[in-house]
Amino acid sequence: MIKIDKTENLEFLEKSIHHLEATGFENIKADMEGYETPKSYIRKESGVKITPDIVALKNGIKYIFEISLKSEKPLLLKSKWLFLDTLSRLKSNRFRIITTKGHYKFTNNMLEDINLTNKSPIRI
CA–CA separation, 102 vs 82, rounded Å? Predict the structure, then answer.
């Protein structure tokens, strides 16, 4: 999610965190109150701050999770996903996308647009 959408969708973010805890993820960091904030990255060109929605560990492997909900600014979301995917591959981490009912088509279209069709979203 981009920063504008986070304030409106805190419930789904919390639901996603509970789902991850139930599936064995630990040391969860999330971009919301009550959790440690994941490391942010700043884009030098525009000064845009990129923070993953959720970062967690499972079996010693770091996973970066992004929440996919319909957005007003899909271009910003696409660039964020591409950056996080590239970063995770550089550091041998995993990048996953979480979505929910009503947002599957939007998510799949976004993944097709940026050639990340090998990613299958986690459906909650």
Answer: 23
Greatest alpha-carbon pair distance for the chain in Å reads: 39
pTM to 2 decimals?
0.91
Residue partners of 80: CB distance under 8 A and separation at least 6: 2, 50, 66
C-alpha pair distances (Å), 79 with each of 5, 11, 32: 16, 24, 22
What would you report as the CA-atom Rg of the chain, rounded to the nearest whole angstrom? 14
- Fold of the 3-123 domain: Trna Endonuclease; Chain: A, domain 1 (3.40.1350)
Convert the pLDDT of each residue in 16-53 to its tens digit.
999 999 999 999 999 888 899 999 999 888 888 899 99
